[in-house]
Write a structure and sequence with these properties.
Layout (H helix, E strand, L loop, with lengths): L6 H18 L3 H7 L4 H9 L18 H14 L1 H21 L2 H12 L4 E5 L15 E5 L2 E12 L4 E12 L5 E9 L5 E4 L12 E12 L3 E2 L5 H37 L1 E2 L2 E2 L4 H29 L5 H26 L10 H11 L6 H11 L3
Parallel strand pairs: 1-4
Antiparallel strand pairs: 2-3, 3-7, 4-5, 5-8, 6-7, 9-10
Helix pairs in contact: 1-4, 4-5, 4-7, 5-6, 5-7, 7-8, 7-9, 7-10, 8-9, 9-10, 9-11
Bound molecules: flavin-adenine dinucleotide.
Length: 380
């Protein structure tokens, strides 16, 4: 067993950390306050090759592994949850399904530009009445004269207003048991009949774009069907397993940032004639925070490594997502507590960490859904 990062993984950590510290960090407060998607930062990330870390070079990617990608999400999440969420969603949800299940032509047409950071992708699974129960999808896609005609509604879709394509799940028929067949289709964002609205006023990750989508007789060529139409449900479960590693990594970034801020504040702040870091009550909080950050990191790297080895990783991705996101929320809460009244003020940033972390316990499968996934894996 080797716990060392490879040379390449270490280089990616340094490159992303430098970029995050120099370019994203100074703007994190403003991104949150203005709730404005930082498109220019994404353009820069594209030029650095960050949008294509886990994809092969022949499709415009950097040919990195899942561990490297998780490290990149962690480093971005450490300075800005909004940018981290949009980054994770663009790579894991907007582009990865095309890499996993797309034809050669689909990869050339849709993946390359995303991997090069020239365009962004989105993934529309959630509907007003189908959230955790994603199998309850009501959107339909009917094949008529070589085109799928799609009708339905999607909600809470990350990056949709800035995307060139949205991968949409829809019911395309019934199987022999009479159950709905759910397939995934690549829908160009400028397709006629597609309306994208971003009116949500969010608690956290405010600079990440979140939109509602209405599909009214949207027509896409039948070549835009992604993967095996009979296995659409399995395909998006695989996509979500991969996405969970990235949301876990984002949680890790926030948990680490909370620890860093709390530790440095505890050393500076004096009460009762001494640094508050000398109080055992504060020391024990910091010790627990540091331990859980370390545990989360190990769980994430293990899940990412399993994926890279093409071994089953569903359970480990759920462990990592559940633990890292709950750790992010707990650590952010403790960081506020250690800052006292100052922690309640926006300029100290830890209150933003808490608001951003809360989303991670909901998106890409709530904590309850992760526990369901784990218990099913245990054979319950
Ligand atoms: C900012 C943001 C970004 C998002 N980005 C995307 C995106 O890019 N693409 C996308 O498709 N979706 C996206 N989502 C949607 C997100 O994945 C869903 O909100 C999430 O899956 C939960 O669905 P829901 O909101 O309908 O809650 P519900 O499913 O209605 O859940 C409500 C509560 O019931 C619990 N619950 C539900 N079923 C069970 C059960 N069987 N057992 C125990 N408890 C249960 C849940 O855990 C939760 O606590 C995003 C959401 C947000 C807020």
């Amino acid at each position: 067993m080797d716990f060392n990062l490879t040379k390449e993984q270490t280089m990616i950590r340094k490159m992303v950390r430098d970029f995050a510290e120099e370019v994203i960090k100074p703007r994190a407060i403003e991104i949150d306050k203005q709730a404005k998607f930082p498109k220019d930062i994404f353009d820069e990330m594209g030029k650095l090759g960050l949008m294509g870390i886990p994809f092969p070079e022949k499709y415009g990617g950097s040919g990195g592994d899942t561990v490297s990608y998780a490290i990149a999400v962690e480093e971005i999440g450490r300075v800005c949850g909004s940018t981290g969420l949009s980054y994770a969603a663009a790579v894991s949800l907007g582009a990865s399904p095309i890499f996993y299940f797309g034809t050669k032509e689909q990869k050339q047409k849709f993946l390359t530009q995303k991997a090069e950071g020239k365009t962004l992708g989105a993934f529309g699974l959630t509907e007003p009445n189908a959230g955790s129960d994603a199998g309850g999808t009501k959107t339909t896609a009917v094949l008529k004269d070589d085109k799928y005609v799609i009708n339905g509604e999607k909600c809470f879709i990350t990056n949709a207003s800035f995307a060139d394509t949205i991968i949409v799940t829809a019911v395309t028929g019934k199987n022999e048991k009479g159950k709905n067949i759910i397939s995934a289709l690549i829908v160009p964002a400028d397709a006629e009949g597609l309306t994208i609205t971003n009116n949500y006023d969010k608690m956290g990750v405010r600079g990440s774009d979140t939109a509602e989508i209405v599909l009214d007789n949207v027509k896409v060529p039948k070549e835009n069907l992604l993967g095996d139409p009979q296995k659409g449900f399995k395909q998006f479960l695989y996509t979500l397993d991969g996405g969970r590693i990235s949301i876990a990594a984002l949680g890790l970034g926030i948990a680490q940032a909370s620890l860093d801020k709390a530790l440095s504040y505890a050393k500076e702040r004096t009460q009762f004639g001494q640094s508050i870091s000398k109080f055992q009550a504060i020391q024990f909080k910091l010790a627990d925070m540091a331990m859980e950050v370390e545990l989360a990191r190990n769980m994430i790297y293990k899940a990412a490594w399993l994926k890279d080895q093409e071994k089953p990783f569903t359970k480990e991705a759920a462990y990592a997502k559940l633990f890292a996101t709950e750790t992010a929320f707990k650590n952010a809460n403790e960081a506020i507590q250690i800052h006292g009244g100052y922690g309640y003020m926006r300029d100290y940033e830890v209150e933003r960490y808490l608001r951003d972390a809360k989303l991670l316990e909901i998106g890409e499968g709530t904590s309850e859904v992760q526990r369901l996934v784990i218990s099913r894996q245990l054979g319950c």
